[in-house]
Amino acid sequence: MQEQLAQLKAEVLEKIAASETLKQLNDVRVAYLGKKGPITDLLKGMGKLPQEERPKMGALVNETRAQVQQVLDARKEQLEAAALDAQLASETIDVTLPGRTVKVGNHHPLTRIIEEIEDLFIGMGYEVVEGPEVEKDYYNFEALNLPKGHPARDMQDTFYISEEILMRTHTSPVQARTMEKAEGKPIKIICPGKVFRRDNDDATHSHQFNQIEGLVVGEDIAMSDLKGTLDIFAKKMFGDEREIRLRPSYFPFTEPSVEMDISCFKCGGEGCNVCKGTGWIEILGAGMVHPNVLEMAGYDSKKVTGFAFGMGPERIAMLKYGVDDIRHFYTNDVRFLEQFHRAED
Amino acid sequence: MLVSLKWLSQYVDIDGLEPEELAEKITRSGIEVEAVNHLSKGLKKLQVGQIKEAVPHPDSDHLNICQVDFGEEELSQIVCGAPNVEVGQKIVAVRPNGYVGGKKIKKGKLRGTVSMGMICSLQELGVDSKVVPKAYADGIYVVSDDVPVGSDAIEVLGLDDVVLELGLTPNRADALSMLGVAYEVAAILERDIKLPETAHPTTNEKASDFIKVAVEATDVNPMYTAKVVKNVKIAESPLWLQQRLMMSGIRPLNNVVDITNYILLEYGQPLHAFDYDKLATGEIVVRLAKEGEKITTLDEKERTLKASNLVITNGKDPVAVAGVMGGYDSEVTAETTTVVIESAYFDGLSVRYTSKDLGLRSEASARYEKGIDPNRVMPAAERAAQLMAELAGGDVLEGIVTVDELDKEPARVVVSPDFINNRLGMKISLNEMVTILQRLRFDVEPANGLLIIDAPTRRQDIKIEEDIVEEIARLYGYDEIPKTFPVGPVTPGRLTRNQQIRRTIRRQLQDAGLYQALTYSLTSDELAQKYALKTAPTTRLLMPMSEEHSTLRQSLLPHLIESVVYNVSRQADAATLYEIGSVFLGQTEEGLPLEEEHVALAMTGKWIDNAWQGEHKTVDFYVLKGIVESLFNTLSISERISYVAGKVDGLHPGRTADILLDGERIGFVGQLHPQEQKDLGLKDTFVAEINLAQVFAAEVESLQYVAVPRFPSISRDIALVVDRLTTASSLEEVITAAGGKLLKDVRVFDVYEGEHMEEGKKSIAFSLTYFDPERTLTDEDVTAVHGQVVAALQENGAVLR
Q1: Averaged over B298-326, what is the pLDDT?
Q2: ipTM of this predicted structure
Q3: If DSSP codes are grouped into helix, strand and coil, which group holds residue A308?
Q4: Residues B337-364: what's their mean pLDDT?
Q5: For residues B293 and B306, is the Cβ–Cβ distance under 8 A?
Q6: Which residues in chain A have their CB less than 8 angstroms from residue B474's CB?
């Protein structure tokens, strides 16, 4: 019987080793270790053995059975791993083929500039205020210290709708309206919007363009506050290395009035084609709010002062991105628009 | 304003500064120098020569072969094509290997004849053809006889000068004169100023015996002065005077007129010279014009006047439009012998309106409009008389005939140093302030801690304390102002709800594949109301630049569709654009049109294009509608939105849906009408426009968490056969009503019409999801409700499939 067992073991081990698939292996398991298999039969035949040999023989059969099972499990693991390898190999794809693209559009470059400026000033506690594109002569001019017949009205060629109604020539009427509504309270606002001038459209002129203006009104607002604010703006918008300089200028609604230049962001001040060799780029106009403007809005200009500044997103975009024709912003050529998809400048 | 530095140096010492250095100083302290023009740039080896001989070129009908004497041993042969070449003329020529206009001129041959250089016109020497004297407009320039041959022509013509181009802001009218610029430069450089002499001999005859002056409208003409100069000899002005006029952009005419223009430039005081004999009456009366009265101005144009226009008359007829332009009939000509010089003060607004009425601007009107110095009216007249005596051989009559009610007092401003320092955020000492004001030649007196300032009348822009702040700041230097931040209550900066929603919409549409477009608010009359959501009167410009941009839009779509066409006609295989902007409707109480913010979408062409996977799809109605639906979903109003078949002019009548919010129409989505597409050269194009004002106005409940379902849901499908035109939404309504609160979701999953379907019918299948948040639904529960749904559908004419 012992011999029979050894022979059986050799036979099953050979068959396990010869199994090439999980199914063959399972067949071997069922054939030899199953309820009707020869090993079970051996156990059943133990009754014929003498009493004293039975435990020894039982242990031997169980031991053999365990050994076979172990070999079988190992082979099973082997075959499973091979099967998986085969499956993975058959599933291989060309990972270099292009993916399914997700069609994504993007901001208009001017919105990109405007939102950047809005967010910068929101961070400094400003609110964003908007106003109508069609304005009263009063808010566009008169309330800004530009009475009818003022020579400075020539600085802004105007589309009139009637004697008293016009297309706003700047976003300053939003300031006038906001001050009037504030009833003497402090103000910190930024006003983006479309403006209109009686111009023929060409590479550098557009009858419609954008402006962003800022206004701060309160007690003890000084010109140094304006300079500090513009300095931060210039550094955040155009780079930490930027320097600013103020030059005297004239706007009817501010006194004193200045223009702000920044050191050229292309050449750093050495002189190049962007700054026309001067090292400086004109970015915005600003000044201290004219007392007449404050008074007309109901402020006591003896107690309350303010500063204002204004700039053109088109100009900034043209300088920043090197756009050479202002009309690009209004033709909406997708080949132009799609260039402004990047998250960072 | 063009400023010759040589001329300027007559009044103020500018030695020791390069022109660019001076320009930078002027710019940094107040007046922008837009350009520094070196007149001799591009010129080299120019000499004065005399034409000794000129014979026509044998092979040309216009060239002359000239022999020119440059004071050298031999004459030089120069071939010249100018029509005005004559023997004996002294001319300017560029010698071989010299430069003119930056171009090298070499010894060469013209039609086979050797030419040693080129005889020059003023234009070739860089003078603007608009200011070249008429005599030399079409030919070479002729130098006066007393210039020796061989002289350096650059010096002779005064081209060894530099001209600064000032970009003047309207407040700095004082710098519209050489004297004004001189005061400014003197203040910047802290140097002295030297004023011109006006003294001159006079005859025994009195001006007042020759001319009477009366002003009927002293409110707009508070001061009028007249001087009389007899026996003038009209001739060309001396070269230096012509040069200064040309450099300043004025064409020389004759000595008398040139002198008036010279004084205009020197003093900023416009003058006019009348021919005394042509005035005929010995009388000047200034009055308002009669409505419809006519005058022919110096430019030989007849002009019709309005009753508000101020005119100078000879007591009967207008002889000049006050402050704008003289009359042709009293013009100084070669025959003139007696001249009346007018120096007057006209009101700026009056001149401005008259100049606008006539569409006529002049050097004079530009100065009057911005305000002239009341204290220069008289000196300017005297200075002109002096020059007429000196340069035109005239005899100046004694005295000046005047009407004078003009206030010539300086403006007084009282300001405290603290006020100035507080405005600037600086600490400038009182003494420094006084010094700066003195440099500007302001009368300043410190008293009781205040500065009492009388600004000179040439500075009409100085009126209030803030004006003094600016004067101090600009000369002290803006670089010296420190950088600080506004101190005050902390203000939270954030976008308003509408601004946030607008940004959300932008990002969502962009993430859905659309590019943000920007188009013009102004459109043509024809397109202004196309696709408009509401019917309202349009708003039109009074004087549009073009018909194309004449009227305010009432829909964003026409321009947006134009942008689509633009892209498609440039081979784009898709155009997916949106715009957010205002439309302009009718008129509000304020008198302004109602501005409503809209969003518009336009899409055409490829949508899904995964070539190697073979997945292709072009934009269709449901692509665009899906984008609109998910937008409403993000804005959490999708459950209040419904779509009904709609009609919009220009859109496909069977493929357009009105969008309703709480039952009210807020927009539409649809396909362009096939005819429209054909006309525009577009393939299927889909558009939508939504009134955002109504979207903003929709109040939305605050975001609240809803429990994630703990119990399973059960799905049942229904397939129905219905009439072809039965809408999905009408069936959905029936299902929703019958499904009650257990019905959680209804979804169309199949629509079919065609083969195997009865004509005029379609099959539509819904998937229904039932759910109870409180418990696990049983089959019996669902069967009961579902039965009700099926029954309701059958009642409404649907047949189960």
Answers
A1: 96
A2: 0.88
A3: strand
A4: 95
A5: no
A6: 248, 256
CA dist B398 and B232 (Å) reads 15
Which residue in B233, B278, B285 sits closest to B256, CA to CA?
B233
Domain A110-340 sits in which CATH superfamily? Bira Bifunctional Protein; Domain 2 (3.30.930.10)
Flag whether residue B542 sits within 8 Å of chain A, measured between CB atoms. yes
Q: Quick one: average pLDDT of B409-432?
A: 96
The CA distances from residue B460 to B343, B374, B405, B454, in Å, are 19, 9, 18, 11
Q: Nearest CA to CA, how far is A136 from chain B (Å)?
A: 7
The residue of chain B nearest to residue A189, with distances taken between CA atoms, is: B493
Query: May I ask the CATH class of domain B411-480?
Result: alpha beta
Q: What is the Cα–Cα distance from B16 to B655, expressed in whole angstroms?
A: 80
Q: How far apart are CA B183 and CA B172, in angstroms?
A: 12
For a pLDDT cut of 90, what percent of chain B falls above it? 92
pLDDT score for A36 = 80
Beta-sheet strands, E only, within B116-258: 118-119, 142-143, 162-167, 212-215, 223-230
The pTM of this model reads 0.88
CA distances B579 to A102, A176, B531, B687, Å, are 21, 28, 15, 11
How many whole angstroms separate alpha carbon B584 and alpha carbon B591? 12
Report how far residue B689's alpha carbon sits from residue B670's, in angstroms, rounded to the nearest whole number. Answer: 9
The pLDDT of residue B594 is: 97
Asked if B578 and B509 touch (Cβ cutoff 8 Å), the reply is: yes
Q: Which phi and psi angles does B118 have, rounded to 5°?
A: -150, 135
Question: Which residues contact residue A223 at a Cβ distance below 8 angstroms, ignoring those fewer than 6 apart?
Answer: A256, A288, A307, B423, B424, B425, B426, B473, B481
Q: Which of A320, A322, A264 is nearest to A112 (CA)?
A: A320
Question: Are B612 and A97 in contact (CB < 8 Å)?
Answer: yes
Measured CA to CA, the distance from residue B726 to residue B797 in angstroms comes to 10
Nearest CA in chain B to A302: B419
Query: C-alpha distances in angstroms, A143 versus A159, A169, B445, B461, B743?
Result: 18, 14, 34, 19, 61
The nearest CA of chain B is from the CA of A322 a distance in Å of: 19
Element housing A232 (H / E): helix A223-238
The whole-angstrom separation of Cα A286 and Cα A295 is: 19
- The answer to whether the Cβ–Cβ distance between A332 and B518 falls below 8 Å is yes
Measured CA to CA, the distance from residue B544 to residue B566 in angstroms comes to 24
In the block, tokens 């693209």 appear at A101
What's residue A291's pLDDT? 97
Domain range B714-800, its CATH number among 3.40.50.800, 3.30.70.380, 3.40.50.720, 3.30.360.10: 3.30.70.380
Nearest Cα neighbor of A61 from A38, A30, A39 is A39
The pair of three-digit structure tokens given for residue A204, joined into one six-digit string: 């550098």
* Interface size between A and B, measured as CB pairs under 8 A: 247
* CATH code for the part of the protein at B44-156: 2.40.50.140
* Model confidence pLDDT, tens digit, residues B365-378: 999 999 999 999 99
**CB atoms B467 and A123 under 8 Å:** no
CATH number of B2-39+162-189: 3.30.56.10
Instruction: Give the residues across from B99 on adjacent strands.
Output: B44, B104
How far apart (Å, rounded) are the C-alpha atoms in residues B513 and A101?
11
Q: Kindly report the CATH number that applies to the domain delimited by B497-697.
A: 3.30.930.10
* B603 interaction partners in chain A (CB closer than 8 Å): none
Q: In the structure encoding, which two tokens stand for residue B602, read together? A: 């336009």
